[in-house]
Write a structure and sequence with these properties.
There is one protein chain. By secondary structure, the chain is mainly α. It has a domain at about 45-120. The protein is built from 5 helices and no strands. The chain has helices at about 1-20, 55-70, 70-90, 95-100, 110-115.
């Protein structure tokens, strides 16, 4: 029985440690300055592709599009950030559909910047 008490305490300590290292309340990134309009239209790819969170199916399809052109490490960081937000963003209550709707229209880079542990922070 003592083993279960210790494992429960360990789980609580790990949870608090994760919350301290990865705070959910990270300040959102400042919006980028508008780019000048040119004759050529650049199609965003990889981590700069806006994700469609209108439904879970379109969210998953958008992630697959990002995966095609993003580096493996960038995509791994994006997936880890999404898992982190799913668990620690209490407004979505671990609901993938709510999280997809909340992140709808954001790029992979913008989503990663929501976490304090991104490469750019």
């Amino acid at each position: 029985m003592k083993q279960f008490k210790n494992s429960g305490l360990l789980l609580v300590l790990i949870s608090f440690a994760l919350m301290a290292v990865f705070p959910v309340w990270a300040e959102p990134a400042e919006p980028a300055a508008p780019e000048s309009v040119t004759e050529e239209t650049v199609t965003p790819v990889g981590m700069d592709l806006p994700l469609d969170g209108s439904s879970l199916q379109t969210w998953e399809a958008s992630l697959e599009e990002v995966k095609k052109d993003a580096s493996e490490s960038d995509f791994t960081t994006l997936k880890a950030t999404i898992k982190y937000l799913l668990f620690y963003d209490f407004s979505v209550q671990s609901n993938r559909i709510k999280l997809a709707k909340k992140l709808d229209g954001m790029t992979g880079n913008e989503i990663v910047k929501l976490s304090k542990w991104s490469k750019d922070s």
